[in-house]
Amino acid sequence: MEKQSYVSPGQVIVVLAVTRILFSTVHFISLHAGRSIQDILPALPAAFLLNLLTALPLLLLLRRHRGKDPVECATNIFGRGAGIVTAIFYFLLFSWANIITQSVFRFYLNDAVLVDAKIYAILLPLLAISVYIAAKGIEGLLRFGTVVFVIYLGVMVFLVCTLIPSIRPSVGPRFLLPLFFNGPGIFVKEMIAQFNGNVDIVYLAFCAPFFKSGVKLGKVFVKWNLLMFVLMLVLFGLCVAVLGPFGANQFFPLQYLAAQSTVSVFDRLDPLYGMSWMLNTVLSVSLFLYLQVQCLSKIGMNKHRRIIVILVGILDTVGAYFLSNYDNVATEYLLNWFYVGANLMAMVVLPLILLIGGLIVRGKGPAHEMA
Predict the structure, then answer these.
(1) Residues in contact with 199: Cβ distance below 8 Å, sequence separation at least 6, in sequence order
(2) pLDDT tens digits for 272-292?
(3) pTM of the predicted structure, to 2 decimals
């Protein structure tokens, strides 16, 4: 266990922001929005409020059991068996996130950067780097994540500053209207995608035990949610105002925007954007791998931790390799109803069960320690 380590809430916020931004626009092509792509914009403030609502059960659970993650809460309330089941469930959720991240990264490289690159030449270096970072622990991982966030933010600032002047006053605003001309379908789909993106609240819950006792998790989540709302609004707004309906047909609209941008000695920003994308992917895969191993440590698999990190990393890479023949998974997973169900279980249903269970068995042992 690494609970002797303490991390800054600010570090966790920026790391989760980076992992959230990574694939924020990949699903555009699966919306089939066409000339209704502007309908994604009103979904962002609605998703901001939905995120606050869906995060409440998990935040209330962790407030009631300060210093614990969901697996430890389940163990304290219902016993070791419930803790094992909860740990396996979250392990599988993090595994899916890890495999999907590697699959999207492989698809990105083969589609936009290195068309002829072999799958193993992409996934094996990613495996080696992510295993090394995950084995270093939470503090090293978050320090690396802070650096990645600074680099990514710099690229985004360059992108915004160069693209805003390219928005023609006679054309750009027209791409933003009319809203819901073809009905609310695109709005609803984007709400689903945003809900699935909000699964970062679960990652935050597993980082909570590493905060100092005075940190209020609710405030940390609100800050992250607000930061994501602002970043998404800027990036989505640029995609709509600059690309319009054309952006709805791009696998990687931000990559396309970067290719059209010029800053000083850089003829195009897409090499810088590609670099930040790769660093971001390494960070995300390392974080998910670390969380997977954390789940396993809760069920007694805490010996020979480095070996477990390597074995789990290999399993994730094998999973990503087998998904390489299904490129549609890379662009449609945020709209997948199975993923919706899994995230609903992780964020809402399971925390509610634990909250209600805690009330029913109140007074039995340390399950209901109040901070």
Answers:
(1) 93, 97, 343, 346, 347
(2) 777 777 888 899 999 999 999
(3) 0.88
